[in-house]
Queue: 2 jobs
Job 1
Amino acid sequence: MTTTDSDGSSTAVEEAITSTDPVTLSKVWGMGGMTAVLVGLVAGLLVSLERLDLESAGIFGSGDELFQFWSAHRVALVLLGVLPILVALGTTIVPKQCGANTLLFPRAAAFACWTWLIGAGMTVVGFLVDGGLGTPDGGGQRQATALTLMGILLVIGGLMVATMCILSTILSGRAAGMGLGDIGYLSWTTLVSGTIWLGMLPVLAANAVLAYVDLRGRPAVRFGAEDAIWEQLSWVFTHPAIYLLALPVLGIALDVISSATGSEPANRGVLLVSTAAFGFLSFGAYAQTFFDTPGTPIMEEAIYVLAAFAIVPVALVVLGGVLDLLRRGGSDLGSSAPAPVALSVIAVLLTVAGTVLGALRVVAPWDLLETSVTGAHFTLVVGAAIIGSVAGLSHWGEDLLGSPGFPGLMLLGGLAAALGVALIGAADAVSGFLGQADFTGVDLATAGYPDSATGALNTVSTLGAAAFLIAGLIWMVGGVRHLAADSEGAG
Amino acid sequence: MLTTGFKLWFGLCMAAVMAAVFAGYTSGATETGPISVGWKGGIGNHVSYVIIMSAAAGLALVGLIAVAFRDADAAAQAEVLGIDEAPEAQAVVGNSLWPIFGALGIGAMAVGLVVHPAIFVTGLCILVAVGVEWTMTNWSEKVSGDAEANATARENLMRPIEIPVLGTIGIGVLVLAVSRVLLTSSVNGAVVVATIAGLVVFGGAMAISKRPEMPRRAVRGILFVGCVAVLLAGILSAVNGEREFHQIGGGASDDDAQVETDH
């Protein structure tokens, strides 16, 4: 009953919930993350459908309800979706790349996994029972909002503990003779991004605690006011913090293409420094608009603008490394590139596109900060992170589950996702230039009285959201079939 | 020689310091404020400056630790230990209940903070118990190099505590749950429920005892399902509330003077 070493009599459920095996934990992280991505994509599609008519509420009953789904879309994709999938890869692949026999602190890793899962469940329930992260008109249920905040705190705690386990493995679990500079690109980018996550997530937790404590008081003084909660947490869903999701994807791309082409990047040192710089420029905890003092809005300050522009050449350097690998080893790929290679290249291109759009977004005369360019930027970067993560899961599928899985399905889903992300990104970016607000609400005033052409662009964006959701479903089917095949093989 | 880890983290630290100073100067700081960490003047945007400078401090600490411990290289570890080859950093451990129970404890605390203090206290108790158990498990794994001997050492120490405590708690929870069911049922209904429950328990125990070849897995499954059913019934009954009790002679406070009526 204590340390239940398998005695052969335990059931599959007992095995699953008591396991400290990194592969089992990865399955939980991965499937949980993919499920959250699907939930986020469904919410995104509903919000897109609502935007087809900017003048009134169609699908949702009020602007508050729309806001709950709009914010749930971002929370689900970032905290409940992409980050856990990256943790899934870090839990299994990073120890292998470092030559470690297993993940360090496996019980803590299991604790992190279950804490995240429980927190994710609480967060979703909080959103579903009229809570979420506040609403513009204060129409949500206070207790449900409090439940969402507690769920977010558990999610943050789980992600932090898991990150610490992975970083400890990279540091202390490396095989003899392997220096920190010799580890795989995924491990290196995980080391950098993990360092930055551990710097940012506590700040996010502090924001959530502040909002929770004030929310529970009656009445809320400032931080817990329902129309103020989202703004305190929103920095983690936009530039520059959002780029941190794409950093491990750059590592995945370099590893995947390097492995497929059988060649090493010519300038490894440059790539290591570039990815570290990418991580540094992704540190976004300082960009808290809620704490702006009169006259110094952080999003118009030089540090914010400079970071947005500086990350573009850094991303281009990494793209150069990827293209160099393809140039030198492209002939080894044959007539058709393997699915993970194609998905990795798409992910890197979308990341670069995201950084370029992020730079355009902060150009002051265009006044795009509050427009749907922000949403387009989010979609490009998060879309790149999701596609890149799937490339990683597909590439290392055999290490994770013992069989290569269904690369055809993964590629099909990836192409649908790329199409969807491109459509959403392009349409929302143009809509932003035409004056459409990031959160459109259910009336023209909230939508920013955009140009009439945004109607057609919103239709295109909705088609993109549908394509992205279809991609998520295809990946889910592929993942479930892969897991089922693995279970049958084990049986 | 400076290690790769030091270069990474100290490099990030230096970049963060420069970013903080830049952020200060470009947001209305005085000439000496940002470079003196606010000692000699204003630092501009307090939030961005403090957060970036705090990150720099953390990165500096990690960088210094990395260089002090040579990036935790296996060769450096072996040298410190005075052996030729460093052992595996992590021994493979078996399955464990403590992670999931710990997570459930924290989850209960979080829900309790929002819903009801009793749930919070329950979560806290679970977390404390898990903390003790987890600690003892870790201690026992370092008693010797023999896993079986370690497990025996742990059981010798903890079983005399675990069995009575868990037994008491289990009985208490089940009694509480069953009492909620009986208090929710009508007077006659309670008799029927108690009779059926008794027969089911007695009959089930008889059936199991007649089949000693039944797999342990099946017995555990039956017990698990039974406990969950009782707990769920107890929780639902508690939510539903007790049936009404009416007193004879209104105003009398003597418990003996109460009668129960069906509703």
Note: Confidence is low (pLDDT under 50) at residues 1-6 of chain A.
Job 2
Amino acid sequence: MTTLRLIGVGGLLAYRALFNWTTPAMYVGTLLAGPTFQLLFFAYLGRQLGVADDGFFILGNAVLAASSACVFGGTMAVANERRYGTLGHVLLSPRSRTVIFWGRVLPYAGNGLLIAAFTLLMGTLMLGLRIPPAALPGIALALAAGSLACGFFGLTLGALGLRFRDVWVVSNVSAALLLLLTGVNVPRENLPPWMADIGQFLPITHAAEAARLLAAGHGLASAAPALGTELLVGAGYALLAAVLLRVFEAESRRRASLETR
Amino acid sequence: MDSEYAIEAEGLRRVYRTRTGWIRPRRETVEAVRGVDLTVRRGELFGLLGPNGAGKTTTIKMLNTLLIPTAGTARIRGFDVVRETREVRRRIGYVFGGDRGLYDRLSALDNLRYFAELYAVPAREQRHRIAELLELVGLTGRERERVEGYSRGMRQRLHIARGLLHRPEVLFLDEPSIGVDPVAARELRRTVADLAANGTTVLLTTHYMAEADELCDRIAVIADGRIQALGTPAQLRRRADGRRVVEVEAYGVPATALTALRDLPGVRETALEERGALQLLTVQSDAGVDVQGDVLRELAGVRLGRVNSREPTLEDAYVAIVNAA
Amino acid sequence: MSAVRTLGIGTLMHAKHLSRSSFEIALALIIPLVQATLAVYLFRAGDEPHRLLEAAVGAGLMGVWSSVLFGSGGAIQNQRWQGTLEMIMLAPRRPVLVVLPITAATALTGTYALLATLLWGRLIYGIRLDFAHPLRFLAAALACVAGLGMFGLLLASTFVLIRNANALANPLDYPIWLLSGMLVPISVLPSWTAPIAAVLPTTWGARALREATSGGPVWPSIGICLAISTACLILGAFLLTSFERRARAAGTLALS
């Protein structure tokens, strides 16, 4: 029970303290308008070049919309601790770090879900896409799975921040790579096989696939495998983040590199 | 347009308005400077002393055109700081303490080249002037290194070189020795004294009393946004004339004892300064009254170190002035 | 003459300062390469597989715009954080002479993206760099840098005058890419966007580059791009002067 509390309350507090985008202007600009513009950009580009229909881009980019909040949020969850010089104090806590840091991902993932849903709404309204109402619960599930997986992916990047100074380069480039490799904007069959293969191991890929299946009217049953894979990918990053955090913590105590500032 | 004064200020006031909060913004106004009058002669080295938040930096920034006064006027070499900014800026240099304000990823040389250009140093003279200043501040030989690798003292010296590029007639030095080691601080004082000796007007703010005492022709003590005292160091010291100072090293002086000390007959000022575990208690009294015995009686039960009775210094005068404000 | 010298040296120094930030460089080089790759596969997947050179040029120009948007938009705020804003504003110069080099430098360093995408296209995808008008391409690229630098000044002065404008401008990369037709001119956009596109210097810069790449008159587009940019520069200079005065009145030149 107390562990749950640590995940929930501790995560929320850390979210407010460490998330750099909580002013309304920043939130609206970066997290709401940004993904919508991105969606429109690719949808119109797709129309112009005749790559795929609107639905392909709308669903893909809606799922991807969660990524900026989650990837950067997850990175901030760890990296800003170091920037503010509070990391040492957190690590001094007798509680399990794994639980502490996993807890931090939840608010970011929740936020990502909200943004993804908003982007989907804007996309469908502005470009006039009809989604069968029966598909909505399933799509919500897909957006949530994508957000969660992205959050743990971000946490993994944040863990790298304990070891490498330029973690923001890593997260910026990772966010751009998600754009390319997850098949959100380029149909996967048009990517070189090795790129598509990397995409299999990234968050978003399978969630976008599930969302597209659902929106096309296939039932939850046909989208279930993709949804499951997305969750599996997320769990994989959660584990990887935990391992990296543990390794880098041990290493930084040995090399006294925790507080580099 | 030629004034015998380098700096003239009349009734300078400055109010800051701040806005905090998002949903329900809270507006506050703070009056940082509440009417400052001062004149500084050409070639004079003038000190502005005061506790943190007294209004020193605000005063300097009104004089050097960075802030527009809320009320009052100021002129530099006869030019109005609000209306004739370009004329004023041609004639002034500004150096502040701390390690910000430089382009870290550029070398010292590039920083100086850039600012020489901005500060309108004629192209023909730039190379010579920069070399001369690097020599003056002792950075020759390291000028091609990036500033990010510089120590605080080196940055401070680079700040000074930058402030002098265009041979300003009036130089504003805002706590230039903050965070500088003692040896570097001494060199800094020598540089400043040389500048003044060669005719540059210098307005200096500092926390270090000895620095002000050694350098300044005249000193203004500013507290609470107003000038509380103004005169030569000797004149200010005389404020503490007829006084005697007892210094006591102590550990854990209770607040009640401090209040009791203040009420002793003959006691004029008390000050308590933390020095690590140790506290330094300073008690100023009328010279005619020997309070040492009374002081020690009040401190009965407190662990004490060295006890010393001495003549007042400029610092004691300063404490008296600031406490009276 | 001395003003030109000041602009030149200032731009050079700021470009040097920007170029030495590993963060800026990594982003300026890597992200456009990802975008270029994306563009190549999109073009191949679509109806235009033969226009890969345009994709590489377009992705590069997108990088230039990102550099200007984030660099110039935040130019004054960045100087404030570094503590250099007061020192440069103290110069006995017009504010525009002090700030234009900063925004010009962001356009100049943005060309790293253009060079990178062209090189990338050549090396990885074997895109032949056979421009229809090589010299005019160079002229168009220079016009883009100059034009975007001047446009950047307008951004810098606007963003600093409007509270939170910087935050709201964060997502402006995609709309400008889209409206200016940087990757491809989008004929399928709603018609109300056409007038907006027509007044953006980026539209004409992108058009000049495309004409030089695939054939077209080039010079008229360069001329319109520079004319609009000059108007932006003049407007920006007025705004800056007003900013300087307001900042001195409000005491916001320093960080604290």
Note: The first strand of chain B starts at residue 5 and ends at 20.
